[in-house]
Design goal:
The protein is α+β, with helices and mostly antiparallel strands. The chain is built from nine helices and ten strands. The chain has two domains: 114 residues, NADH Oxidase, CATH 3.40.109; 170 residues, NADH Oxidase (3-Layer(aba) Sandwich). Helix 1 crosses helix 2. It binds flavin mononucleotide. The site of flavin mononucleotide has 21 residues, from helix 2 and strand 9.
Length: 334
């Protein structure tokens, strides 16, 4: 089984799973190329799909690519192969952001504690109100361990921390709303009435605004939403931060892998998740997200977790657009 070149069909299977990952504004900023010996896949960032005003350093772009990389690992295991990952192997881009070698057989016991493959297609952002049901402690412990295995720290916030992070997110959302260029950039990723698109955010994925203005879900339209469509959100949202020691592209790639691993595991357990990224997009509000009691670290993401309706599926670019087979010499399958 090992040392067998990947067939075109297997490469497409891997790319489809990678492409199902979450990304800032559903920008899908990734490109995949088979390794020259067809025993792995190289994962590239696609700067042409950057969101430059919101994400000037490409931090969110690398987080998105990290999530795609994690899905690729899960799909590699499904093919019976052991994914060996190297982040930024050439140390700079435009070389690959990561290489995944798939030449050895998968270990007997699943490395993520369980098979996460089915969750790859079931995971969606859920921006709707959640119930007030708490996340069981044991489950949160598993999510925390999953993030730690990927090199990031997941912290569930206490009430004071939740209030602090909500206030910072409100402030960032207000600022973005009064910044015409940023608002236009975000709106450009909205897909409201046009023919079916394969990227961006469709109307069906937008949730209501919070009737009590407690939970600042991102307003993608840049317009005040009508109050008659607002709904009551959970009284005290369950928020968690994902933090890393460093703040370099490799840390962002690790964050993306940790986010996706946590999200897939949450999905397996019927727990919903959405991202509240606004406060990370302004340097001062990002700084304020840090919990001084937690010691040094860089907050990369704010996650809202809870029980509620699943989010809808959002469109994806076709495999032919994200998988570059131009240098690939197809092998005949076993
Ligand atoms: C780095 C990053 C930042 C994101 N920021 C937000 C956000 O601020 N608000 C939001 O509602 N969704 C946010 N998302 C979720 C994306 O909009 C979502 O993943 C994308 O539209 C695809 O939808 P899906 O998650 O349902 O597959 C973010 C995702 C990533 C990876």
């Amino acid at each position: 089984m090992s040392e067998q070149a990947l067939t075109t069909e297997q490469l497409r299977f891997l790319a489809e799973a990678a492409g199902a990952a979450p990304s800032l504004h559903n920008s899908q900023p990734w490109l995949l190329r088979p390794a020259p010996d067809s025993l792995g896949m190289d994962v590239y960032t696609d700067p042409s799909r950057a969101v430059p005003l919101t994400d000037p350093d490409g931090r969110a772009l690398h987080i998105s690519v990290g999530a795609a990389l994690f899905n690729l690992r899960v799909a590699g295991l499904r093919l019976g192969r052991d994914p060996e990952v190297r982040l930024l192997p050439d140390s700079t881009e435009p070389g690959p952001a990561a290489t995944v070698r798939l030449s050895r057989p998968a270990p007997a016991s699943p490395p993520f504690g369980r098979d996460l493959f089915e969750a790859v297609g079931q995971r969606h952002s859920s921006r709707r109100p959640y119930t007030n049901r708490d996340i069981p402690e044991a489950l949160f412990g598993d999510l925390l361990a999953a993030a730690r295995d990927e090199g990031a720290t997941l912290s569930l916030l206490e009430e004071a921390g939740v209030r602090r992070v909500l206030a910072l997110t409100h402030e960032a959302e207000r600022r973005t709303g009064s910044d015409l260029a940023r608002t236009a950039e975000t709106r450009a990723w909205l897909r409201l009435d046009e023919p079916p698109a394969n990227d961006g955010i469709p109307a069906s994925a937008l949730g209501p605004q919070d009737h009590d203005a407690r939970v600042p879900v991102r307003n993608f339209t840049g317009r005040p939403s009508p109050t008659d469509t607002s709904q009551r959100f959970e009284a005290l949202p369950q928020l968690a931060t994902l933090t890393t020691h460093g703040d370099l592209p490799t840390d962002w790639l690790r964050t993306g892998q940790a986010m996706e691993r946590v999200w897939l595991l949450a999905t397996v357990h019927g727990l919903r998740l959405s991202v509240l990224h606004q406060a990370v997009e302004w340097p001062d509000t990002r700084w304020g997200l840090r919990d001084p009691a937690e010691g040094p670290g860089h907050v990369q993401l704010v996650l809202r977790l809870g029980y509620g309706p699943p989010g809808p599926a959002t469109p994806r670019r076709p495999v032919d657009e994200i998988l570059d087979l131009s240098d690939h010499r197809p092998t005949v399958g076993p």
